[in-house]
Amino acid sequence: MKTSPEVSVIIPVYNRAHTVACAIDSVLSQTYQNYEVLLVDDGSKDDSRKVILSYSDPRIKLFEHAENRGAAAARNTGIRQAQGKYIAFLDSDDEWLPAKLDEQIACLNSAPENVGGCITGKFNIESGQTTQHIPQKRNSWRETLLYVCDLGPGSTLMIARKVFGVVGFLDETLKRYEDWDWLVRFTRTYDLCLIKKPLVKVNRSVYQNPERIEEAGNILLEKHQQDFKSYGWLKTQQIRSRRLQDIAWHYSRAYENGSSREHLLKSRKYYFKTICTFPFQRPGVYLALFDSIFRTSLRLWFSKNVWQFFRNE
C-alpha cells in the first residue's frame, strides 16, 4: 500500500540551471526522508528542465508553465499538486542544512493548535560574505510582519497544508513580496513557531530592482491598511516610515541618488508627524543618506564588517 509523503517540498524554478541542483541535493541530503519534491519550472529559457530531469529519484516531480508567470504562480501550482501534511518552500538558489525538515516537523507536531507554520534561522550569503540571522519577534509575529519581513519565507518556512484552505493562495498579481503578503494574511488567524538556529543558506542578490520593490511596497501598504490601523495611528506612521527607508536603501544600492534622497526625506516626514525619537535614529538611516548623496557604500560596508563583528561578540 502506497503511503502519502508527510512533507511536500516546493521549489519554483526560473532560469536556475546553475543553482537548482544544489537546492535539490540539499533536500535529498535531509535526515528526514518521507517527502516529495515538486519542482515548478516557470517558463525557463535555460537548461533548468534538463538538470531536473537528470534526477532519477521517484520522489522528484516536475511541473511546467508554458510561460513565465512569477514566483507566486509557481508556488501556487506546487501547493495545488502537494500531497503532504506539511508544505516546505525552497528557493532554487538556496540550500537546506541536513536537519532542517526533521527539526521543523518535530516543532510543528508538538505545537499548539493555533500554530500553523514554522520558521528557522538562516545564513545570509552575499558577495562572498556570510552572516547569521535569527528572526526577532516583537509583541507578536503579526506586528513583526507589519514592520518588516526578514524571515526568509521562500526557504525557511514550513506550513500545514490545511492552512491554505483558510488563508488562501499567494497573490499572483504581486511580482515581489508575495510571500510577505501571504504571511501577513496568515498571522490574522495563525501563529508561527521558531527554531532559533540557522538551518538554511540563503543566497542574496547584490542588485534588486528598486522600482519593482517600490511598486510592490506601495501595493503592500495599500492592501493591508486595516492591519496597520489596528495597531493605532502612531504605529501606522512608523510602519510607513520603515517602508520608505527600505525603498531608499535599495535605490542607494542602485546609485539612483535622487530617488534615494526623495524616499528618505518622505520617511523623515512620518517621524516628524509622530514626534518620535528623531534625530536619534538607527545609524543605518544616516549612512544610507550619506551614500545616496556621495555615491558611496558605507552602509553596506558597515553591515558586513563592523555591525557583524559586534553581533558575534
Labels describing this entry:
Spore Coat Polysaccharide Biosynthesis Protein SpsA, Chain A, alpha/beta, 313 residues, 2 domains, nine-stranded mixed beta sheet
Q: Could you please describe the fold and organization of this structure?
A:
With 313 residues, the protein is α/β, with parallel strands linked by helices. Helix content is 46%, strand content 19%. The chain folds into 2 domains: 7-203, Alpha-Beta Complex (Spore Coat Polysaccharide Biosynthesis Protein SpsA, Chain A); 210-312, no CATH class. It contains 15 helices and 9 strands. Strands 1, 2, 3, 4, 5, 6, 7, 8 and 9 form a 9-stranded mixed sheet that branches. A hairpin with a 2-residue loop joins strand 6 and strand 7 (129-133). The relative contact order is 0.11.
